[in-house]
Amino acid sequence: MEAIFGVLVVVLVIALMARVLTRREARRPPETTEHALTTPPPTFRVVTLGVSGSGKTVFLASMFHRMSVQRADVRYFLETDAAQRVALNSVFNKARKTDEPWPRGTRTGETREFTFACMSFQEGVKYEVLRLNYLDYAGELLEQEQEAGSTALADLEQRINQAHALVGMIDGYRVLQYLKGAPEGQEYIEVRIQPMLGMMAAATCPIHLVLSKWDLVRDFGEPEDADDNARLALVRDALFKSALIKALAGGHGRGPRVVRLIPVSAVGRKFATLDASGIVVKRPDGEWDPTNIEAPLSAVLPDAFSQVRAAHDQALQTELEDRRRSHMRLSFGGLMAALAKFLSIPTGIALRATLETTLGRPYGEEMASMFLDWVSRPFDDRAGVAKGAIEEAEGQFTALRRAREDVFDHFAATIWRLEAILPASVLSR
After folding, report:
1. Which phi and psi angles does 346 have, rounded to 5°?
2. Are residue 372 and residue 421 in the same domain, yes or no?
3. Do 300 and 371 sit in the same domain of this protein?
């Protein structure tokens, strides 16, 4: 099965390259890379959901603050426009000041949209690799009955259907109450978040359940020597008592979809605590040190592209293997032409439809090029016949592709590290 999957990727890589190069070369002289470097990169749409108090806005502000400057251990950084930068910084400052109350949440009618440009340097030149558009919906929208004539929920459903990934914020403080058997926690899991889970279940894109306030999920009856993964496994098992959460992870015939449970603390373990009345308060000497804050962002592209790769049945994989054998002796030009033609027949059309369904309609050549770069990376050393073709085509876009590779490698490393340390975070594949 691994061999067939590898073959599928090799053929898909060459086929997509043929399509991308054919369209590009028809529009520009071969000696220039201006189009590749000036065309806006693909935008990945992320819808962030969560009822009031779940921590969506503080999470986004903390993530941007941490990722908006280049660091030695990270191969990319985030940029946004001045207005969004000021708004996020205002939330961050209010959250970080220990003598001020927590920032208020997003109110109904204040739905906010943040677009982050993912940047990477190559030999002193800055490249924009991709964009991530985060839609922060007011939590009250999922809890209050809407006025007659309101289109807010219909708009939300449409945005969910167009998303490349969904982030569902689950309040760690309420989960702690649930684990301890408190009525407020049971109401939260069994009633308050059900509309959010139901809307997410109808989507086909990857789902990231972000367990916020992970620093507070302690002392609920876990063994004294429990590490984070053991603690997360206990939380997962408790959440699976909710039929909707368990069904969301199981998929129930919806096809391949990645579902993760990512524990995140936007502030860190030494910043907040529970007072005598059980209210989350800031410590006077609190130290800000977020946990797993970049993991949800890093998972967007890998999980979306993983679903594209996994969405093919055995018959399609077999046909691709047969075609690969027939093309092995062709020259580079002949191989490109043969595979470009393949994309116009029913099997090739099915392959393209999968890409369009998962990544949005219609998929442009920039998104196809990005998918090409993503799937080719792990297989370059094993690609055999395709390797020379890939290297020949790469010549025109070396710097941009190196920037992409750096970002993709960091995304992949972040997710591999998360899964290695917290295997309980993987709910489905």
Report:
1. -50, -45
2. no
3. no
**Which residues are registered as beta bridge partners of 394?**
none
pLDDT digits (tens, 9 = 90+) for 296-346: 999 999 998 888 777 665 555 555 556 555 555 544 445 445 555 666 667
The amino acid present at 311, given as its one-letter code, is A
424: amino acid identity, one letter: A
Amino acid identity at 279: I
Interhelix angle for 314-327 vs 332-342, to 10°?
150
* Interatomic CA distance for residues 22 and 9, integer angstroms: 20
At 103, which CATH number?
A: 3.40.50.300
**What integer pLDDT is reported at residue 298 of this predicted model?**
95
Mode of pairing for the β-strands spanning 207-212 and 426-428: unpaired
Q: How far is CA 100 from the centre of its chain?
A: 32
Query: What is the total count of domains within the chain?
Result: 2
Q: Token digits for 412? A: 């992949």
DSSP string, 209-274: EEEE-GGG---SS--TT--HHHHHHHHHHHHTTSHHHHHHHH-SSS-S--EEEEE-BSS-TTTEEE
- In a shared domain, residues 279 and 340: no
Residues of the chain with pLDDT under 50: 1-36, 330-333, 335-336, 361, 364, 378-396
Taking the C-alpha atoms of residue 18 and residue 148, their distance in angstroms, rounded to an integer, is: 52
Q: Which residues contact 272 (CB under 8 A, 6 or more apart)?
A: 213, 215, 216, 280, 281, 282, 283, 286
What pTM, to 2 d.p., does this model score? 0.79
For residues 192 and 149, the answer to whether their CB atoms sit within 8 Å is no
Dihedral, CA atoms, 41, 359, 299, 250, nearest 10 degrees? 180
CA dist 69 and 57 (Å) reads 19
